[in-house]
Amino acid sequence: MAAKIVLALSTFPDAATARRISNELVSANLAACANILPPIESIYRWKGKIEQGSETLVLFKLSEDRQSPFQEKLRALHPYEVPEIIFLPVTGGLPDYLRWVTESCAQT
Question: Is the distance from CB of 40 to CB of 55 less than 8 angstroms?
C-alpha cells in the first residue's frame, strides 16, 4: 500500500449540511468517500451547560497525506464554532479498496 489511510469522523447539524460539505470534500479529492449516517443523538457539555440534540455523523475515508488540507477545508466549511474532526488510523483492509482510497485522494 503506497499511502496510509485514515478514517475521519465529523458531526453536522443536519443531513443537508453533511451532504453539501461531504460533496465539496470528495469533489476536491480531499476524501475518497463520505458515509452519511442517519441522525444520532448527542449529549455534550458546551460553554458550561449540558446540551442535547440531533446530529448527522459522517465517516470520511482519505489518505493520510491529505489529512491537513482536509481538516483545513472542513474547518472552513463547517457551521460549528468548534467542529468535531477526529482522525483514526486504518491499520488494515482490502488492498484494492485501500488503493482506491489513495488514488481517489490523489492531488490533481
Answer: yes
